[in-house]
Inverse folding.
């Protein structure tokens, strides 16, 4: 089981950009209702996908990270692989949609 990591301006590079594996980053804010809906789904994904690290960036606290990745709405999910943004998903999505998103990109990278 993976623990969801709180990503900050201090640990983002070490945790995400220096990772050699898949890393799913959720950009969110405490006042965002769709973000609240997505949170328990990410907890379930953390249990089911042990090969993917998951982190959350609170854009209210750590506002310098989001502009680097052109985050304009939340929630936004970025899937990183070996420090590169592999894919983006904007808006609240169901667990099934998130699993399809992850499976598609994991499969794509395993065949290259």
């Amino acid at each position: 089981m993976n623990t969801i990591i709180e990503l900050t301006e201090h640990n983002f590079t070490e945790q995400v950009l220096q990772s050699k594996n898949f890393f799913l980053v959720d950009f969110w804010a405490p006042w965002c209702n769709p973000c609240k809906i997505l949170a328990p789904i990410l907890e379930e994904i953390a249990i089911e996908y042990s090969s993917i690290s998951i982190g959350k960036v609170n854009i209210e606290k750590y506002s310098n990270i989001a502009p680097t990745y052109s985050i304009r709405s939340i929630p936004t999910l970025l899937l990183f692989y070996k420090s590169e943004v592999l894919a983006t998903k904007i808006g609240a999505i169901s667990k099934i949609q998130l699993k399809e998103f992850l499976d598609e990109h994991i499969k794509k990278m395993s065949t290259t």
Observations:
- The domain at 5-110 is CATH 3.40.30.10 (Glutaredoxin).
